Amino acid sequence: MNGGLVVIRAGVQSTVQDLGRRQAAQWGVPQAGAADPLSLALANLLLGNAPDAAAVEVTLGGAQFRFVAATDFALAGADCAAHLDGKPLLPYSRQRAQAGQLLQLSPPAHGARTYLALLGGIDVPLVLGSRSTLLAAQLGGVAGRALQAGDVLHAKANSTIGLPSLAIVPPSWRPVLRLMRGPQWGNLSTEAQSRLQKQTWQVSHQSDRMGLKLLGDKLQMAIPIEMASQAVFFGTMQLPPSGLPILLLADAQTTGGYPIVGQLIQADLWRAGQYRANDQIQFQIVDADKAVLALRAQQNWLRKIQRIVCSSI
Hints:
By secondary structure, this protein is an alpha+beta fold. The protein folds into 2 domains: 4-171, no CATH class; 176-293, Beta Barrel (Cyclophilin). The protein has 4 helices and 21 strands. It has helices at residues 37-47, 190-198, 269-272, 288-312, and strands at 4-9, 13-17, 55-59, 63-67, 71-77, 83-84, 87-88, 93-97, 102-105, 113-118, 152-154, 166-167, 176-181, 201-203, 211-215, 230-231, 236-238, 246-248, 255-256, 260-264, 280-285. It has a 7-stranded mixed beta barrel. A 6-stranded antiparallel sheet has the order 7-6-9-4-1-11, with no helix packed on it. A hairpin with a 7-residue loop joins β17 (236-238) and β18 (246-248). The two termini are 20 Å apart. The relative contact order is 0.18.
């Protein structure tokens, strides 16, 4: 029997996510997928899964799951002080559960999202090439909605033998997000360009999986501009008429009409997905060469972790 679990308590918001519908923008369908793609990939990597296998994204903890069969599982992302039948578990670890055991995830002290992966990934239907949940369109995952108490999730692989427990060192956290200049960067006043980088921004309570709304001193455009809609992506920074930036996340629309003043580098997308209301953010402008070097360093680190994990399986 393949492993699986039943949702006892779904917490603030829990959804099934993979790495999203990367080819669906041509149809106007948002990418969706994990708000922290690095942590999802790490949870899968710990089990020997493909990096884009579907897992449960738990936002702000407070969730409980009961295993319906003996199951290998892994946790990554925000540390929710996880307990299995009362036994504390390390974050970023691979564990073995027996049928009937209860996994409890408390609200994290830091970070917003925790990823729970099962061996082989979670078995929900593919929709437009992905198993991820797009809540705004009621698409993918479990009936296109957030998980509810009583939902049963099955693993795609049988884990009758069981893997040894294993934990890895979490990726390093820094409160500064690296941003490349966007196509309308030059329309900002010199003062606004400086303020964007020097100011400490606060995450608004109105933030969600679509984007982080930022609070601080308003940014002014030196050159007013009226724009047609243009393509936007996970990590795009838009500047609406309010003068307060919005940093788009995984569920963002595919096009937008606000000026684009920046684009988060790919290596820092995962950090953006871990911010929550009232957290503070600073931005550092970098060029494309530094963005490529940062992504290459992250990919090399992932390959190193993968070699360690493969040697333990």
